[in-house]
Write a structure and sequence with these properties.
Length: 176
């Protein structure tokens, strides 16, 4: 049972309705995450803009970004985001057996050495940001990662750490 009920899209204010329309156009639905954030329209708008910038833009592939999102969420034990980004991996064309491999053994999944290094770095930053071995940054750079790609991978991690905490604190229902 959610601690704060999601906003019903039919009851949304005009500014929230506009953001909901963009989200629906992108995802085919308005997830409970955004429906709950709609209680504070500025928060909804800011987070939607951040999702568009981080997840839809940039240079890293959607597969890498969704893998970071699902693995950070798994590490944080956030069932909502694990479900959402497992579904997102499927939606971007990742076969079911590869999704399972990403969740169970990302180093064994079909990623380039550069992508694997970025995923490892993002996970370490999530679990222990004060103790990231310099070797993880060196490995990412040695595998060809640019500073922009490193920042982008950590930006994906940052978005989902925040979403994980928000969703878990409010016990938002999984809708995927």
């Amino acid at each position: 049972m959610p601690r704060v009920p999601p906003i019903d899209p039919t009851d949304a204010s005009p500014d929230v309705h506009t953001v909901f329309a963009e989200i629906r156009e992108t995802f085919g639905m308005v997830p409970n995450l955004f429906r709950t954030q709609a209680h504070v329209p500025a928060l909804l708008r800011a987070n939607w803009e951040k999702v568009k910038a981080v997840m839809m833009g940039g240079v890293l592939s959607r597969k890498v970004k969704e893998a970071i999102a699902v693995l950070v969420s798994k590490d944080n034990a956030c069932p909502y985001c694990v479900a959402a980004h497992t579904a997102a991996l499927r939606a971007v064309g990742v076969p079911e057996d590869e999704v399972a491999r990403i969740l169970d053994d990302p180093d064994g999944a079909e990623f380039s050495p550069r992508e694997k290094a970025l995923i490892r770095l993002a996970r370490q930053a999530n679990t222990d940001p004060h103790r990231i071995p310099e070797a993880l940054f060196e490995a990412a750079r040695a595998a060809g990662a640019s500073d922009a790609e490193i920042v982008e991978a950590l930006g994906v991690m940052e978005v989902f750490v925040a979403f994980n905490k928000f969703l878990d604190a409010l016990q938002v229902d999984v809708d995927f």
